[in-house]
């Protein structure tokens, strides 16, 4: 049809162009139909959007955000509509752009406080609309300020400890001058990389001082704020500062002094420990304690009970003899059997020492060692001069024993034997012995013990013993002490005295010798 | 001996009397009239600070009570009740933004504050009564309601003092009529509040207490600006 019209006259040209246009439109329509037919399954009306939240940073303006639903495969537009208490009509959002995508910004002119807003968002595309649920809000309830800005830290290095001064500015969009809002601040601090934040309330001040900081650490500080009765803002950007360690090096002199004094103390302590004995003696001088003469404390500590007893036996008795011996005048008792000797030797009275030559361990007595060897020699000479007499042994000694526990103390008078001249001459001391003391007469070195009867008491210090005869032996043989009566000189039987078990010579109770 | 006992007991009685007298007037110190001798006169700055503190406290209590009610009754927040809530004080024209409040004259602003406070006197009293009779609420909430009631009363007295002081100082003219006859300020249909439910009443009061606090702050920073603004 169109071809025929081609050859028509001028008015027919229009129809030619119309025909071309019609062809184009037909093509377009065909295409559309085709695409629609192809995509008919995925296209739909948009999904329902959701209003998320609204926020007012300074109680003068506010912003609301929504989340769109599915767009249904078609370009979808969103519109926010609101109604307001005490205001008739429905209005659309004044500003979709300032706050970004899917948001609506209400400026001051459109913001009213203390009135309810009812917001809805409508999503629309070619195929339909979708409306969100209404969202009711009052600006008074949605106040949340921006974070404070320009947080600066300043370290003040004082002598004792450093302190940290924090300063900040209120958020830039809030009005602090008219009293419309009251801003309160909070800050938090953490040290190094720990996760423990320490929070502080600053009230309405825009500065704060921290005193609990120590050198050598990196401190991170954050600040946030609150308007009236609203919500807290986000924390500000972190600001950190490193407090230098130089304070520790500031006083090397004091450190040096402290180290030196410590070394000195340690050395003094070591010296004290090394010389603790002398120190102890100097501080606590030994108090002289009572010492019993002749007793060796070490022997006492180490020895057995028998030794102790022996020590006591030996040691306790001899020293008095010795000392008495020294002080005494040269009186002695001559005990003899031979009357000739007596007459001949009456002039030759010599002082002889009973072997009282004992070595004392104690210091006190060591000085007064009575041992003089020449004395013994003298005795030897004397004894040799007196041929009548047997040379008496120089090893005989007199034991004295103090029997303290003796119940049956025979209260008899005893005399100490001063000297044994021969085997039948005893020199007794002049002084009277304690009644409880016993005289133990004993001879050493294989010389069998020998007891003689006292024949006669010549004077107060001369006792004449009976010479023993074997035949005259009629003494009782009691124990070991009374052996060998036969070995010695015979005795007169009628002078047999009663001999005790302990081997003592019991004198007949006589008037005191002195 | 009996003399000392008597003097000690007298001291105790005096102390008790003083303490009890202090308790009756919480927060508001006695403000002297010009004639009284030996009375410490507070500055306007100080007076403003006190009433602002008081209003902040009042708003805090009202917010607490409101959130408690929300827990118990759970009204849907997105109810389409656009017409629904009308506070009985909505007849009082109040500035609903910072600029509006700043533009308003001091006397007008003071009057608005006083009107609000007066309007809430009766409703809060009845609210407290209804809370005391309902055994659903614990003592804590009931005490808060009573406290709220007292605070409105005291805050009104405080603001009246402030207004008086301002008039004396010549800051505002004598056109503030509330001091003369408070009943004039009451809205004509004052019985509206009886129709309100408790929850709505709390909601309205929370809003109005916030208004009072904000208006007082604006007024103070306009009249006696200092670093506290």
UniProtKB/TrEMBL annotation, chain A:
Stored PROSITE patterns: FN3
GO cellular component: external side of plasma membrane
Localization (cell): Membrane
Record's keyword terms, sorted: Disulfide bond, Glycoprotein, Membrane, Metal-binding, Receptor, Repeat, Signal, Transmembrane, Transmembrane helix, Zinc
Residue ranges of the TM segments: 253-274
SMART domains: FN3
Gene3D superfamilies linked to this entry: Immunoglobulins
Keyword Membrane in record: yes
GO molecular function: cytokine receptor activity; metal ion binding
Membrane topology: Single-pass type I membrane protein
Segments forming domain Fibronectin type-III: 45-146, 147-246
Keyword Glycoprotein part of the UniProt annotation: yes
Family statement: Belongs to the type I cytokine receptor family. Type 1 subfamily.
Name of the protein this chain belongs to: Prolactin receptor
Record organism: Gymnodraco acuticeps (Antarctic dragonfish)
UniProtKB/TrEMBL annotation, chain B:
Predominant subcellular localization, coarse grouping: secreted
UniProt-annotated location(s): Secreted
Signal sequence, renumbered to the chain: 1-28
Transmembrane listed as a keyword: no
Keyword Methyltransferase recorded: no
Keywords noted in UniProt: Disulfide bond, Hormone, Secreted, Signal
Molecular function GO terms recorded: hormone activity
Listed Pfam families: Hormone_1
GO cellular component, one term: extracellular space
GO biological process, one term: positive regulation of receptor signaling pathway via JAK-STAT
Annotated family: Belongs to the somatotropin/prolactin family.
Protein name: Prolactin 2
Organism this protein belongs to: Gymnodraco acuticeps
Taxonomic lineage of the native organism: Eukaryota, Metazoa, Chordata, Craniata, Vertebrata
